[in-house]
Write a structure and sequence with these properties.
By secondary structure, this protein is an alpha/beta fold. It has helices spanning 31-44, 46-52, 179-188, 202-209, 227-236, 252-260, 273-286, 308-330, 334-348, 354-367, 377-389, and strands at residues 57-69, 75-86, 89-94, 103-110, 114-129, 132-139, 169-175, 193-199, 215-219, 243-247, 265-268, 297-299, 390-394, 431-432. The strands form three sheets. A six-stranded antiparallel beta barrel has the order 1-2-3-6-5-4. The radius of gyration is 25 Å and the shape is globular.
Length: 434
């Protein structure tokens, strides 16, 4: 038996004790009855979601563990029914009112590392019906949704929310046979700070990609070759930057081919500008598993560091090193490649380029102890790409975009209205939290 539900207050009020609820959640609901409430809330939030222009990914779990923290350190351990998840917050259903400002710690199961404690604060709680309350939590620090959800990269589901085009910077390679296709992509991204390189054939695209770019957008149809061929060859050559395939063919057979080729995302044609911006932001702002050789790569030294000038000189040297390594590969000069990797790897970390130090170490390791051992093609290409992606100066953090009118970010919390837009219903299966 559980004690009657009482409002949870951030300061004072009824004494809170550890929950003895053996049910899946505080509502005592699961299955069809719980899903009916989810569906009702989702249908009622479409208007708010459209105004927010936010991604709300359904994360329906019967039971997610949370801790409610009160002044003095007293905690209440509860299991709640989770509704949705975004980078900066979570929505759940609870049996009683929770006051705004209440600190909580959510336990989310990482896909590979087990339970992760994510602190945050309640930013909104509204009564739904009877004892059901819809609660929104904003995390203290944004999370990577991909750590907790197995998202299909080819279903045009992106976790970035409001994208300010001015925050998108770096070098994008557009591989498309027709100039009009290249121009369409560039036109949609005209308000960004991106630099563009264009290629009209698969082979030209591969040649340009090897020199280092931040992201690749590739069409699927070419007179000679295909987008799938491009991605497959690029991955085999060690090009690790994110690759977005675009195609008018959305058949299951084609999507299976794109997935097998290890494309990072898919955009259906005709392209939508909002989805294109969100796709690029997913990799250039949020980052991903394969964004190691993305550009631009700035030093992590603080602004005004006395070593900033040396870091800029190092960037100039890296471009020359990349050219030299490619020449040495053609000559099968493994000792020369090792010498250059050692030269770069030594000062890289001290100058704020730790990612370059890591790929240099991997390149050296791939050569082994034998003087004549050939290096790994992937290790070489990743090293060259990373060297060319280095840029001078310290990158200033982007200023968060102001919430649009009707957005629930400020006081009400971005999860107050729950998951909304019809084209963003990427429902995760109902499951039990571990």
């Amino acid at each position: 038996m559980t004690s009657p539900a009482r409002p949870i207050r951030p300061g004072g009020g009824a004494k809170i004790v550890a929950s003895t609820n053996a049910r899946a959640n505080t509502l005592g609901l699961r299955g069809a009855e719980l899903n009916a409430i989810h569906e009702r809330l989702d249908m009622g939030s479409t208007g708010a979601a459209a105004r927010r222009q936010s991604a709300r990914l359904a994360f329906r779990h019967d039971s997610i563990a949370i801790e409610v923290i009160q002044p003095g350190g007293m905690q209440t351990h509860l299991n709640v029914a989770c509704r949705n998840l975004s980078r900066s917050g979570m929505g759940f259903l609870h049996s009683s009112y929770v006051h705004e400002g209440t600190p909580v710690v959510v336990s989310l199961r990482h896909r590979t590392e087990g339970p992760v404690r994510v602190p945050g604060k309640v930013v909104r709680c509204r009564h739904v019906t009877r004892h059901v309350h819809d609660v929104g939590v904003r995390f203290d620090t944004p999370v990577n949704i991909k750590d907790f959800m197995d998202l299909d990269p080819l279903k045009q589901t992106f976790t970035c929310e409001i994208v300010d085009p001015k925050h998108l910077e770096g070098t994008v390679l557009v591989v498309a046979e027709y100039k009009i296709e290249q121009s369409c992509v560039r036109s949609m991204l005209a308000d960004t700070a991106l630099q563009f390189i264009c290629a009209s054939t698969v082979e030209e695209g591969l040649e340009r990609a090897r020199k280092g770019v931040g992201l690749i957008i590739c069409d699927d149809v070419f007179e000679a070759g295909s987008g799938v061929e491009f991605v497959t060859k690029a991955r085999a050559a060690g090009i690790r930057c994110p690759m977005v395939l675009m195609s008018a063919d959305i058949s299951k057979a084609s999507l299976d081919q794109f997935r097998k080729a290890e494309a990072d995302a898919f955009l259906a044609k005709p392209l939508r500008q909002d989805l294109l911006l969100r796709a690029l932001a997913e990799f250039l702002l949020v980052g991903g598993e394969k964004s190691e050789s993305s550009s631009p790569l700035h030093t992590s030294l603080p602004a005004g560091s006395p070593m900033a000038e040396l870091a800029d000189e190092f960037v100039d040297d890296l471009a020359d090193v990349a050219d030299q390594v490619e020449g040495l590969v053609a000559k099968n000069d493994s000792p020369g490649i090792r010498r250059l990797a050692l030269r770069v790897g030594g000062p890289a970390s001290a100058l704020g380029f730790d990612p370059i130090a890591k790929v240099a170490a991997r390149l050296i390791a791939s050569l082994g102890s034998s003087k004549d051992a050939p290096p790994s093609a992937m290790a070489v290409n990743t090293f060259v790409s990373m060297c060319r992606s280095a840029m001078k100066g310290v990158k200033a953090p982007p200023t968060p975009a102001a919430p649009a009118e009707g957005d629930a970010h400020a006081k009400d919390g971005e999860h107050a209205a729950g998951h909304g837009a019809a084209d963003e219903k990427a429902h995760a299966p109902v499951a039990k939290a571990a």
